[in-house]
Amino acid sequence: MARVLIVGAGPTGSLCAALLRRELPQLPLRIVLWDKARGAGGRMTTSRSPHNPRCTADLGAQYITLRPAYAEKHQSFYEELLAHGVLKPLTAPVEGMVVEEGSHNFVTPQGISSIVEHYLIESGADVLYEHHVTQIYLRGGKWEVCKKTGSPEQFDIVVLTIPVPQILQLQGDIVNSKSSFNKYLNTE
């Protein structure tokens, strides 16, 4: 069974995991997501009060917009999230909001991170938090991934969905990724 590591449990990482599971159901994949934070969301995080869990604040996006240019290509994602109650149409006026003709705005009643959580559940991935990746090496045709604490682990495939500044801080063979990729493919 191929082991796939997705680094980053934000919107891109969670959707990547869900799409891998959805589009490649016949492949025996063990999908693992690591995130350096204490929970899912990345740039779509919902913060909850430790004193009152009903008191929340969305950090990052407060609403989602479906623009006409993306409607045809991404309509199925919006329909899925609406059907599962993750999204609801934004019906209240927002002062200063400019609405493009044909656009539709949505809110997330359970917080913006509920989109990420929906796709993580759909993916069936093993999600591990407080796993801060520091180094990535190519060893014997597998990727050895080191984190701040704990032993390194090996994966067949590594997908980085973290912001570029964090990718640039990584050490190891990933620093010279073109050379590493060519070695992996035996094309040098």
TrEMBL record:
One GO molecular function term of this record is: oxidoreductase activity, acting on NAD(P)H
**Coiled coil segments of this chain:** none
Q: Where's the Amine oxidase domain?
A: 102-167
Q: Which domain of life is it from?
A: Eukaryota
* Pfam family membership, one: NAD_binding_8
**InterPro entries, per database record:** Amino_oxidase, FAD/NAD-bd_sf, RNLS
Could you name the Gene Ontology cellular component terms for this entry?
A: extracellular region
Which keywords label this protein?
FAD, Flavoprotein
PANTHER family named in the record? RENALASE
The name on file for this protein is Amine oxidase domain-containing protein
